Structure formats: C-alpha cells, structure tokens
TrEMBL record:
Protein name: Phosphatase
PANTHER family reported in the protein's UniProt record: 6-PHOSPHOGLUCONATE PHOSPHATASE, HEXITOL PHOSPHATASE B
Species per Swiss-Prot/TrEMBL record: Streptococcus suis R61
Lineage summary: Bacteria, Bacillati, Bacillota, Bacilli, Lactobacillales
Keywords (A to Z) from UniProt: Carbohydrate metabolism, Magnesium, Metal-binding
A GO MF term: catalytic activity
InterPro entries: Beta-PGM-like, HAD-like_sf, HAD-SF_hydro_IA, HAD_2, HAD_sf, PGP-like_dom2
Family recorded in the similarity comment: Belongs to the HAD-like hydrolase superfamily. CbbY/CbbZ/Gph/YieH family.
Length: 225
C-alpha cells in the first residue's frame, strides 16, 4: 500500500537541475577568472547537494581563498540574478498533475522534501499553482546536514505520520536517492541523461511523470518492498 508520495523539487517537479548546474559552473568560472574544466566525478558533486556541502565543493573546485560564508553570499547573489528572469512555468513538469490528482482521489498524502530553502520551495510551487496539493513541505535548510543524510526524509515521514514502508520518494540525484533509501523508503528515480548523475541505486527509474504514476499503481497492487 502506498500511503505517501514524497517529491524532490529541483530536477523532479521543475526541470531546474540542469539550469542549476550551468549556474554553478558559471559561478566557479567567475571565481577563477576564467574557464574551468570539471571531470565527470567533480561535476556530479554539484548535483542535488545540500547548501553546506555545495559551498565546500565550490571552494574546493575553484581553489578560491574566500571563506565559506563569502562563497555562500556571492553564490546567492549570482544565482538570484539569473533566477529572477526565469519563468518557473516554463520548466514546470506539468504531467505531475496526473500524480497529484490521483493521490488526492486515493487519499495518498503528498510532500516535498528538497535541499532548497523554504523560500525557494514556496516560490516555485506557488508559481506552478500546486502548493495546495501538498500536506507537508520540508527544506534541507532546517537540518544540520541535508541530503544524502536521511534526516530530511525521516522528518518528512514523521510529519506525514507514516512509516517508511508506506511511502515512495521521487528523486533524480544520487544524494537524494541515497537519503531516501537510508530512511528506508522505496525510490523511483526520474531519469536524467544530460548530467553525470548516478541513479543506479534507485529501486526503479522512469522517464516521465506518467511512467512514475504507472509504477506507483503497480506498487500499490504488488506492495512495497
């Protein structure tokens, strides 16, 4: 029985993971006053990471002498300048509505568990017109360690009043998949082919929301592992 569906946001609800990756590589270039060539392994560290981990990764990859708080503040300004002009509806995966409507019809609880800030999460789901669907919204900024630490998923389950065996997580990044699985949740990966993301640990992988909904229905029939 599936009693709850927990969505990551960036790269799942909205197709922003690739945009984020471009912004982050541009920011690293700005810190090095030129271009930077990242290996596939290094690039993968920028995808789906918590803010704290991300700031440390940027400092390492750029070799900057700036302290972490300065890296964080400069990244926020750099990113905001680019996101201010972004129309979130243009990157909204509207076929998620098939899942959201189905869940409401079936009495399945819905949540967002994202490493993004509370403000950023609210901003996006309200712009996409789906905020009213979610019973719980949890941000990684509320935890000392976000994904891949399972704390964000454990807290989400607690707020949904569900045990791990009654929930499904929809994730796209290696960190997110690891976090959900460490919390004991079955994970459906949203296929990402443009970025060097290891999704091999997901229990299932689907290429769109329609496929994810079909998988959820099968899990309801067959039972969660």
């Amino acid at each position: 029985m599936v009693a709850g569906i927990i969505f990551d946001m960036d790269g799942v609800i909205v197709d922003t993971e690739y945009i984020d990756f471009q912004i982050l590589t541009q920011f690293i270039c700005s810190l090095t006053n030129g271009s930077v060539e990242l290996s596939e392994e290094e690039a993968s560290l920028l995808v789906g990471s918590s803010y704290t981990r991300l700031h440390k990764t940027i400092k390492h990859l750029s070799g900057t002498n700036l302290d972490l708080s300065t890296v964080a503040s400069q990244l926020e300004k750099f990113s905001q300048a680019r996101y201010d002009s972004l129309d979130y509806l243009s990157v909204f995966r509207s076929d998620i509505l098939f899942i959201l409507d189905y869940a409401k019809q079936q009495g399945i609880k819905l949540a967002v568990a994202s490493s993004s800030s509370n403000q950023h999460i609210r901003e996006i789901i309200e712009a996409c017109g789906i905020a009213h669907y979610f019973d719980v919204i949890v941000s990684g900024e509320d935890f000392e360690e976000s994904k891949p630490n399972p704390a964000i998923y454990q807290a989400t389950l607690k707020r949904l009043n569900l045990t791990p065996d009654k929930a499904v997580a929809i994730e796209d990044s290696a960190y997110g998949i690891q976090a959900a699985q460490s919390a004991g949740i079955t994970v459906i990966g949203y296929l990402e082919t443009r970025l060097p993301v290891d999704q091999s640990k997901a229990d299932y992988i689907e290429s769109d929301m329609v496929g994810i909904l079909s998988r959820i229905k099968r899990l309801e029939e067959e039972g969660l592992n």
